[in-house]
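INTERNAL AUDIT FORM
Audit reference: QA-55
Scope: verify that the stored structure record matches its stored sequence.
Auditor: D.O.
Record contents follow.
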Amino acid sequence: MATLVLGDDQVVFLDALATVLTQHEHTVGAVTRSTAEMVAFVHHERPDACLIARHLARDDDVEAIGRVIAASKRTNVLVLSADPGADAVGRALDAGASGYLHQSRGVDALVAALERMLCGEVVVNVPSRPARRLSRPDQAEGLAALLTCRERQCLLMLVEGLDTAAMVARLGVSRTTVRTHLQAVLTKLGVHSRLEAASFAVRYGLPDAWSGDRLAIAASKMRAIRPPRPAAAGMRRLPRPLPVPVAATAGRGAGSG
């Protein structure tokens, strides 16, 4: 059972949704009509999750996600939207949302998304559609430019064939963080699997374009496997001189006489 706050300007819709969520043993602390009211309640009550029903086409809707998270770090944000587009999903995740659900998915999907999100997962559930086909390389570059530095590194590791555990070990972050980065990569590139993402990167030459990121990954890998230096690493130890045979010493003494 989770404590929730619902935010949207369509109060009738949220009232009905609050009734359904209560039937599923969740506690709805408030149904808010504005961003200011929603943020104020989150700041005061620190709920487990905040469900925001927005389109995310406007900058102030995206800003609302950040304001909720700033008001309560422990509160997860789930966006319920009618927009199935990858751009909208990417905007929500970039703003800090932990989940994005299309309104067509139904109550069972909403309840399942809340449970998974509260367990630390990043949840995206939108209608499937064919991956976007790009006719020009500059379109691919435009999508790739949406990726953060960490997301680029994760994509390059996909090209290398690394799995989640290997990425966790190399980057030194949690599994949840890696999954968040990977989900953002899939969403922003408009692909549906890690294999598609790796294929996208190779097809459009992203590894070569991001050679600096590859060097950064290699450097982090070397730091991870390099043994620690001894305490007196600043002093260079000279090699011990080899012993001189006694016969050679005697010969030198005889010659000098």
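Auditor finding: record pair retrieved intact. The chain has two domains: 3-125, 137-225.
Action required: none
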